[in-house]
Amino acid sequence: MSKKDWFEDWFDTSYYHLLYQNRDEREAERFIQKLMVHLNLPASSKLLDLACGKGRHAKFLSDLGHDVLGVDLSQNSISNARQWSNEHLRFETHDMREAIENEQFDAIFNLFTSFGYFDHESENQRVCSAISKMLKPNAVLVIDFMNATKVVRQLVPNELKTLDGIEFNITRHCDEKHIFKNIEVIDGDKKFHFMERVQALKLADFRSLLESNFDIVNTFGSYDLTPFEEQTSDRLILIAQSKK
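Request: output the structure for the sequence above.
Response:
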């Protein structure tokens, strides 16, 4: 590609990590614990954290006794995640649209709204196809996405944050298909502009995307695994099983 996608540019900057530095680690760990009790995977299962960021979920999965590979397109995120590496936890730079050669997994996790970043629906299908190729027969896919219906309804149009002396002027809007976040960074006398653009995918969209290769077996609406309700749930968490 001659021009970087927005996520290649933004996710690899220090400003991205500064803006999102206060993510709730305890909530993430509790979610993984509840999720793994629900899935009841055998000990030492081989797991993939797809779009793993700085590796927090991958580490929690590994701490529960599994062999985990975390992959992300951001080299900076992977460099940071590698501080956790051990014989049961690896991290690599990888594009989620491509299958990892010579790797098969008992379960693949795509967490914290790490889907729907691309321009075209065909690229979403490429992701699903790659996931299917990397899963063992009857294996599990977990997608943790925002509840787009609630996010759009409660969208905050303007927000100003100052972190470590750096200003983040954030504006949000949506169209029929995407949710946009425009981020102006003011760092002393320097100004930068970044954008986040995520497809506003709903449960029906995921059903269409997954139906060729997966059966959706559960839908949850929170990190406590409460039932999904489109108007009120904070999250859309899908548990799907490979058909192959």
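The mean pLDDT is 94.
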